[in-house]
Amino acid sequence: MKKLFLNFLKTLLFLIFSSIIHANADDLFNKGKVVFLEAGNCATCHALSDAGSNAMIGPNLNEIRPDIQRIIMAVRNGIGVMPAMEGILSDEEIDAVAHYVSISAEQ
Ligand code: HEC
To answer: What 3-state DSSP class applies to 48?
Structure first.
């Protein structure tokens, strides 16, 4: 009986800690970086020093330092030759990549 209680306690602690880690803002930043480099293909066209990319098809993001709304607009709807990503990226991925770019472009 005591062992069962200890196991229950362990599970509870694990759940509490993993939800704290999940709510961490850095989590969104890291997720956005992965979208930037992989699913979103942003690094193929944009320079961004944090991502180690220096492509020059689109504007250098460290130079234009777009705010989060401007990034969401561009990613959802596309702009110029940049393709619209709505339907290709999930809303969650778009939020994450916008969060990541708006912070890392300031550095
Ligand atoms: C195929 C190349 C390409 C890809 C992939 C691409 N972009 Fe772009 N992006 C461009 C070009 C070109 C422009 C400039 C468009 C213009 O102003 O005519 C641009 C513009 C932007 C702008 C500025 C928008 C504005 O209001 O001026 C932001 C922010 C941006 N891109 C972010 C991203 C992000 C984040 C991703 C990944 C999800 C991404 N781009 C993927 C080519 C690309």
So the answer is: strand
Task: Give residue 49's domain range.
Answer: 26-104
Q: Whose CA is nearest to atom 32 of ligand 1?
A: 71
* C-beta 44 within 6 A of ligand 1: yes
Is any ligand 1 atom within 6 A of the Cβ of residue 72? no
Distance 59 CA to ligand 1 centre (A): 7
Consecutive sets of 10 residues in the chain, 107 residues long: mean pLDDT of each?
A: 73 64 78 98 98 97 98 98 97 98 94
Model pTM greater than 0.90?
no
Does any domain span residue 88? Answer: yes
Number of domains in the chain: 1
8 assigned to some structural domain: no
Q: Residue 51 belongs to a domain with what CATH number? A: 1.10.760.10
